[in-house]
Amino acid sequence: MTDVLRRGRASLAFSFLVQGVAFALLVTRIPGIQNRYGVSDGMLPVFLAAVPILAGIGSVSTERLVRRVPPSRVLRWSQPVVLLALLAVGAGRQMAVLALALAAFGLAVGALDASMNMLGVSLQRAYGRSIMLSFHAAYSLGGIVGASLAWVGAHFGLALWVSYLPVVLVLLPAALVGSRWYVDGETQAPEEKGAEAGAGGGLKWLLPLCLVMTVAYIGDSTVSNWSAKYLQDVLGSSEQMATVPYNVYMVTTLLGRTVGDVGVRRFGAVAVVRAGALVAAAGFAVVAGAPGAWTGMLGFTLLGLGLCVLVPQTFAAAGRRAYETGRPGASDAAVARLNVFNYVGFLIGSPLVGALGDAWSYRGAMLVPMVLMLVTLLHARSFAAGADRYGGGHERPRTADVGRSSNGL
Which of 65, 376, 404, 405 has most Cβ atoms within 10 angstroms of its Cβ? Predict the structure, then answer.
């Protein structure tokens, strides 16, 4: 089973990378999309908000879907839909095409995010040690690649479909081939799956983790949507330098996630989450009080190092705690429901900072996510369930938990 798990881990990491590329190609070319379709500034927020809302619907639907089919199959077919929807966004001309393409993208992204993290949680359980951060590191790497490709397309004035088509032609067949080696978690007989239909009903313990997930994405969306404007308008940087903070944030996120699993294994999930929240809060404090652009850059660097550990560990904690209830189906339900708060945080973060910035000041607006980060420290103990098992390796998973390759489905 060792080779099966290794192939499963590699194929799932590649899926995370592909998703990072696709999402970055979409969000970093929003001005180009707006120009291509003639979307007004007033309509643009409607289109942008529709994607995470539909993604939330897709995530909730996946909770029900995986009672009948394995998460690997959901991921296998949702990833091509995401890539084809991205291509449709770049190739269309009419507003109706854009609306349908973004709708398909949003629904498929919700299913993809939920099923990817379900498989990641079950693989971590099979490994018996923390590996969840490595999957999200692959996503960060994909984001860097996607943003770089988007810069090339924008720099040379390439049409959107010209930028997107080669990426889709390469990644779509590669993702389909890689999906042969996905590894599902514990298997259940049909009658057991039916009994698990209500497994998600007793997930009140999930609420603190939902709060942490929401706060983490409020922080993330603040950086992605406001870092350039903040550096240029508040700290007086040049337009060219204002593009740097997000790239720095993505690189430090990648670095933090690359080494984060080692920290979880050595110190435990609770300590890593507390450290991440404190570093992120310090980052927002530095940004809010920065006298100049270079100090602000330091703050965004700290934000990348702090925020990067929160989301993967939140998914991991949800899966572990649900599994400990003795109802395997509850793990997938917990991950799917938790994933919805990814999009809740994204929807709240950008408008929150914008409204506070206009009504008060952008420096003051940066203090709000800082306070929210400190609030998450009150819920750090929610990450303790099973932390010793995966952090210190004191207990190995049972043989039945190892799962099987999706190649035989």
Answer: 376
Q: In the Cβ-directed half-sphere of 388, how many Cα atoms lie within 13 Å?
A: 2
* Cα–Cα dist 404/409, whole Å: 9
Residue 13, burial from CB neighbour count under 10 angstroms (0-12, 13-18, 19+):
buried
**Considering only CA atoms, which of 95, 136, 94, 156 is closest in space to residue 276?**
136
**Which tokens go with 143?**
């984001």
- Residue count of the chain: 409
Q: List the one residue out of 357, 186, 211, 349 whose CA is nearest residue 277.
A: 211
Mean per-residue pLDDT of the chain: 88
The contacts of residue 201 (CB under 8 Å, 6+ apart) are: none
pLDDT in tens, 73-115: 999 999 999 999 999 999 999 999 999 999 999 999 999 999 9
Q: Are strands 404-405 and 183-184 parallel, antiparallel or unpaired?
A: antiparallel
